[in-house]
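PROTEIN DATA CARD
Card holder: EGF-like domain-containing protein
Chain length: 215
Origin: Steinernema hermaphroditum
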Amino acid sequence: MRTRALLLVFLSLLVASLGATGSDEYLDDFYYDYEESECLADEGSPCRNGGRCVDEWGSYSCVCPLDFTGKNCEIPVNSTCLTKGCGLGGECVFLEHIGRPMCRCGDKKEVMAFCDDGLHPTAAPATPTATAPPEVSSTPSAPPNPVPTSPNGVVLKPEVFYALVALLCILMKLILAAIVWTTIKFVRRRRRRIHRADEALSEPQSPKTVSTIVV
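Structure generated from the sequence above:
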């Protein structure tokens, strides 16, 4: 309390000496911030276990170390659902309004520290009763998906089956490419032969000279 009173007196003298306008409003704001600050309470910071207090308007929040959680960093993390889980399919969620992780359990998503059997009732009666064994069909059921087999009847694994199909597709593409390349090469050769024959026919033939021998 002495520190608070001395600080208020010092601030009043400083504002009065400067003659600043709106000093009353400034003092009111400062007094509210100082007086209402939860982080500067007489009993000390509300954050425990080394948590850092962050002052907010009319409230506060704690920045907790990794091993603690909660509004005031008072809950060890290893005691929450973050490490223990929720059990029975519960979901661990962090609830901001209470500042700690909790479990949402059951179909109604009830908030609890841990899910128990009471939130998941079953249709079975409480007292044991004699029940007839389930009927087993004598006819075998067909498999949902056909299993690929090789020509000799050996069951193939899906990976092997798909690999064989891929290799077959690649082989067919290579054969088709070879046929196309051979056809193109044959056509080009034929065109060259025809072109050479046309050039030979179009060239003028030189007249034959007959030499006479005088005896």
